[in-house]
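Write out this protein's structure.
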Amino acid sequence: MITKWSKGILLGVCMIALAALAACGGESSGATAEDGDTVKIGALYDITGGTGDVGTPYSEGEEAYYEYLNSKGGINGVKVEVIGDDYAYDMAKGQRLYQELRDRHKVAAILGWGTADTEALRQQVAHDKFPYFSASYSENLKNLEESPYNFLTAATYSDQGRAVVKWIKDNHEGGEPTLALLYNDTAFGRSPVEDIKEYAAEMGVKVVDEQVIPVTATEAQSQMLNMKKKNPDYAIIQQTWGAAATILREAKTLDIDTQFIGLNWATGEGVVEIAGDAAEGMLGVVTHAFPYEDLEGMKEIKEYLDSKGLSTDDVSQKFVQGWVTAKIMAEGIGNAEELTGEGIRKGLEQIDQMDLGGLAAPVTFTSDNHSGTNQVRLAQVKDGKFEVISDYFSHED
């Protein structure tokens, strides 16, 4: 695991009235970008909270990319300083950290994390004019009237779910396919549920069961017994690695014959490590590449890891996901005429089919669309390892 940059302990910051924020936002630096300048990017991490299983490698990927980029001279000579800390998936702590990044550190853009905190911060982010890349892919963030500074760097959870439903409809044999939805009772867990149900009804895929399982669950026997009674052909999992592994282990114990399909945070090496052979056959939505794939974009990652005496065996898909997110932000900064929140937003809106070397689907942003892509791949666990089984596709294909 990559050693994290040392982080100071954040001082508590009182809630500040919105009217007092005008002088504190992303426009604090009005300078045109020049060689030798530094741009500050804030970051909210979940290292110790309920989604820390995937949050930790993701944050390491973000930090690693900027370390690598700075070693190559930065962004057109502009160095990147990342200032972040662990908010432990606690919305109140996330609010305080956001204010610290804005008021004390005067950052120009932010790399965020969770759905609940990202959605709660939207008004402040819009007021402060901070381009905001969250690790949440909530459909709600597509609304530019409410989220003019939020950008989605991967397919939304709803678009992931729609793609899965389309795949089910196109590939199922033998009558009307039936589906269960397994999710946690958080904004993240609930985010795609209604959209999946609506699209499934349009496609003739019948949702026969829903089970709510905590994101930190270590057992889920009662929920899985309830699902077993409905005997769905497929079950979509909207969780992170830990709870997804719990679901798979319980299903194996109860001899449940259902095809489980994880959305992106339920997919990756960690779920296989935790679930063991119970993960065999699981399908997963792949928004970002696995480090063991032979792709052009992996060359930079390998170069960075080699400089640390590491290899791709030491990182996971979520590391790649963080790396790619940071890389897209850097592209927007490179396009910016000024190192301000508004300048970086305009730079991001110039990104057109950004080629990520296969690490993720190409991303496009415009002034009226901050949803970078709706494309995903599918992978399946075979002999203890996820193998990609499809090209990029969407429910619109």
